[in-house]
Amino acid sequence: MNSPVEDIVLQSVSIDKNDKTAVYLQIAQHLIRAIQNKTLDEGTALPGTRSLSRLLKIHRNTAVAVYDELASQGWVAIVANKGTFVLHPFKQKGKKQTVATYPEKTGFPFYENTHLVTPYEKADTEYSFNDGQTDIRLHSNHQYNRWYNAALQRTSLLKKWNTFLFDRSSFLNTQLCNYLNATRNFHSNPQNILITRSTEMSLYLISQLLIKPNDVVLVGNLSNFAANMIFSQAKAVIKTIPVDENGLAIDFIRENFTKNSIRLIYCTPNRHYPTTYSLGNQRRTALLQLAKEYGFAIVEDDFDYDFQFEGNPVQPLTSIDAHGSVIYLGKTGQALFPTFETGFIVAPANLISEAKNLYKMMDPQGDLIKEQIVAELIYEGEMHRQIKKKILLYKARRDAMHQALDHYFGHLIQYHKPTGGLAVFIRFKKHIALGKLVNQLKNYDITLPRYLLYQTKSICGIRLGFGHLTVDEIDYAIENLRKAYDDILS
To answer: A Gene Ontology MF term for this entry (predicted)?
Structure first.
């Protein structure tokens, strides 16, 4: 029979032969967890290395490595000729323990901002909707491992690490600049570009540079929830303007606001979020002219430019801006594994210089390896190839969503079939309680996040992403969305 301690060790430790983590580290991690939850109390004598190797069916050298690892982290003490003993994780040599558990609350007041309450929720169902993300299942780990290994072998990266804090320009700036000039008709240079971690980070940087408390920010009456959170955090006064099938109503701005009363306008003119309508050419020209007259900034968020299925994407406002009124936000690498998605800002050099200084303070290390990989993929044409391959697949999913909505809902909804992007916006002709729809869908093993819901006196709509679902999954999800719809009406 095993001793009580051996039984505890045997119950606490599991070894996964398929795990890339070394066996001794797996065992050490399990034992640390047992010490943390006090399954193994302070002072407990652990089995000797021979006993541990027999118990777990490992080589004795592995058992020795386990205890050496635990000792190096301070979880056990190895006493010569006596054994290995558990130490208390909170105690330090020569000091008394003063805290048994970590405090639940601070001993000082701080400002709790309701704007930062996350709208995201964990899906505990097999299927879920989102607002237009890509499908992670389409990517090959082998391919990305090859790209990472190639980047790590670049000796030039070492030099970049040594100079990164002083010069934020990079190989990626040059390649991305060339790519944007070719695909979006820009006339930029690398000094007009700042690489960031995400579009949300880009917008946060801009809000910190442009917005002071009580500055007026205009957004559509249907708008991007994440952008609204960022503006609220900057203590801006957010005012809404109407949105129709031609995008933002620019005449409304001229009729209801005066010069120097607006700090910035946030828009998504290529495909308005969430409705997917494009800003019409006349309104685009009018918006640029109004920005010049009134002296406000236009923040153009072009989050899904690369996914264009039919025709040509609407050229960004930046491509026809002659007065430096537009700050362009975008991201590249969406056709790749999410780790490689990279945000960027395109703006006049004086603003980019200031943004770089702020970004250096927030993120001095950056991600040079990712930047090197993305730059090489653009330079070698691989980025373009990946986008073209994914477009065909996502177009088929867009069409499947269109067919499923027509088949299961028909005249019950209104929606615009987008020419690009990975989401569609549907409006129910009969207003229903969307919160009840969310709850009812869970009975069909589907999560509909609440941040996708848009419900007012005049609007009852949902933004539904389809990029992350297969054709069969789309049909299943929309079929059960209809069932949930019927349930709450019955």
So the answer is: DNA binding
